[in-house]
């Protein structure tokens, strides 16, 4: 059974207050919005259906962790910046649907990611609002892939963007050739990359600049790097 | 039936006479056993007609069974299956077999079945099996993955396993064991239950009897005793001359690596005076340097030497091999890539650079020269530091008394078993009650517990510890008790993944303009920046970028380049060689004490070094363990010399550090090599006569090790291989890297997920066991501690660094210094130390 630890760290961006959660989510206080990325629901099911016995408890725990955070923050809406579902439908999505019914009044927005390939009808039935490329709410913008747009965006007044996709991680070097990598929140001046919500995901190292802020998720806590 | 009276023997003997040779005794002995319906193992060196000992046995048997029409009978069905680990050998083998068959007038066909066999040829074989099939362990399992495979083996009479010493002690060996259990098991349901025998062919190893037991273990299925197998030893003593290449001056402070290239001037004449020479180098990185250095040293060699190692593109390697056959090359710089395989007639001389780490490997390499019966093999030993000369002396004696390493067979490889069961499930399916006795008849699985078997079945049918709800796990299904894989997709994926050789992720290296150069480990490239220069296939290349899983490079004229350090090139010193080495040090100490000259030139040459070691510290005898406490500017050093190989020392260092830290809060850094280990701390190390025995005790070894070593990190690496073999990791279809990504996950991710959510998983448990047994060499570590427990611990407090500890000290420096800086600094150290004494 999963217990929510809810270690929070407040971080302000452009006058907006964000609460970073060690459980891999981000809460936007002004808009009462919970933001997550790369849930990859149905991934273990997809593997298992293909004969690869990944332990299904990972997916189950992912869902429980999401529920715990929804219960804690009681958000006005949930935004998923892509890769909410791993692949085509499988029975694990039934598990998701049951949850959806319990939270049927919560608006869910999904900015489509490369893995979100379910038919449009499916999202409709599940009560998920789809944004194909991008979503904008107040001064913030949401898109799946940070490479196009967010990084190459030169305009100073461009909206701050929240993305996912790359499953960012930060490598911390210790003594004696020891090195450890943790999933992280990665903030630059113009965009933020969220850690993958699912624990059945790997990480790709980011190389923060001096101006960037990186928060490593170490166990149940957040550690600011630099 | 007396062999000599049979018509088959007479025909074969006549063939021998026509070639002006006569059969060896061991060949005749083997033929007689085969005629008597026995199974067994032939122990013979390469190039002594070992192939014919088994192959002609099958031929004689066939002629005897068909004395009237043996020349006209064709389409006899499979008679002999010839399992060999070497794909490259198959063609030459087939040619040799076909030659005899033709000259004896038989209508037999010889087929080859391995990864290179074209599809059309496979189809033909399926319709009409050749009488002899030369096959790799992997392809053997692929045959078992074909529908209707039992029929193929109906007429089979003999299973031959070539190079069994190579297969034993590897997962491919386990594959062979399992395949044999199936072939023998099939006899129970065959339409014509004709006898089926097993013959192995092995070079000399320390545990030949056990090797035979393992191979013949499946015979118990048909009620025969594996222990009654025949062991045939070829009494052919292969003449080997071993000569050391001596440096002009013995450095009293030796350190690893650099000396080798200094001796290159002495190598050139050896190459020039021999028809063809093979230079064996231990690592791919060093082989690249040697190749360059030889070209720089002697202009005459340009165009006459070549480089051969596992990262060089297949075509180039094939070209080198062919040039070796034809005698077009003066020398080839190679790694273990040429340890095995076809013999190259023109090779007259072998040079081993650096420690071969084991007696068997050294003799194997020596045997690559002068391999024909009656010829002498010639091998030079070139030390990469002066102390290594003692190894040459140890190797010579080990050869004289035939003190060869054992190959320890693997047990309970669940990953291989899972793969095998899935293989059976895609062809004919299996019934657990029928297949379990077969599996148990394999040595590897003789100890499998009922619960473990149930767990494996559960794993392949239910996907391990699964939830009942929402689960659609699908792999093997039980249909009326028959376990089958019905999904075509899953079957196809499985077929592509049959095999147990898991290599590190490698990337192709290509020129910007096209043109393939070779393969390189992803790990190495990941540390390079665009613009960096590295060496591959003897060329300096500038790294441009990685695109579509290919490393793009351009030619570079930079004078300095990084030599890739490939992983896995560092084998530990074998325990046989360790024992001999301790013996040599013992003798050296005795010779010094008695003021006598030692019989080995290597030891005599090393005398100044030994004298210095004795003056500053001590030379350990066979029943002694030397520990040196030395204080330098860097801190407090503790040097220990068990001579048990790097891996054992690594585990021992961690163990000692852990046990010492219980006495006082203290932190260490480690260094180790094949001779010993170093602990370095900023405070005095609390080890003395009063607690030494306790610190080296074998009590609570397992518990202490698990607390002291970051075994999770090591296990993660092991788990990768196991996960691939066990079918947890899907590596994608060939040439379709991207498409299959939704099913890909890295081994480290799976490892983490299993550790957290399913830590009783059987493959995870296997990974932990393999780390203990193979990585930490737990058995050897325990034996060493027991040996130390029974011996005298000698603790000295030298005032300065000793010859024994110097290489270790340099190794620990190496971590923070680039090679140039290191060389300068070490040179200064050597000079200073030498002045002080």
Protein model, in words:
- The complex is a heterodimer of chains A (226) and B (837).
- Chain A is of the alpha/beta class.
- Chain A has a single domain, classed as Purple Acid Phosphatase, chain A, domain 2 (4-Layer Sandwich).
- Chain A contains 5 helices and 16 strands.
- In chain A, β8 and β9 form a beta hairpin.
- In chain A, α2 packs parallel to α3.
- The longest helix of chain A has 17 residues.
- In chain A, 45% of the residues are buried.
- About 2% of the residues of chain A have low confidence.
- Chain B is an alpha/beta fold.
- Chain B has 5 domains: 231 residues, Rossmann fold; 161 residues, Rossmann fold, CATH 3.40.50; 151 residues, no CATH class; 50 residues, no CATH class; 154 residues, no CATH class.
- Chain B is 43% helix and 15% strand.
- Chain B contains 33 helices and 25 strands.
- In chain B, the strands form 5 sheets. Chain B has a 7-stranded parallel sheet, sandwiched between helices.
- In chain B, α9 packs across α18 and α17 runs parallel beside α28.
- Chain B is globular.
- In chain B, 47% of the residues are buried.
